[in-house]
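Input.
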Amino acid sequence: MLRHVVNTRDPNKVIDTFQAEIARSLQDWRDLQVKVNERGPLAQRVSMDAFTRVAVAFEGFRSDWHLAAITKRVSPMTWWTFGEAA
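Output.
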């Protein structure tokens, strides 16, 4: 049952990691926009790649954060899922 899950991740660290990835993605996008003169198909491709990178990072963040939050404090999840206290 969930009450025996080991607390291994800090939800706040998951947030920090996600924010760092977003900052890196945005900086890469800015740097590449300057190099491709901010116009044309290559600039559109750079924008789409940056957006995709952020979307993938968000999906990973969402999954990792939920798991970290649940393992940090199992009782509410156990109660909500099984209707009992952990």
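Helices lie at 11-35, 40-72, 74-82.
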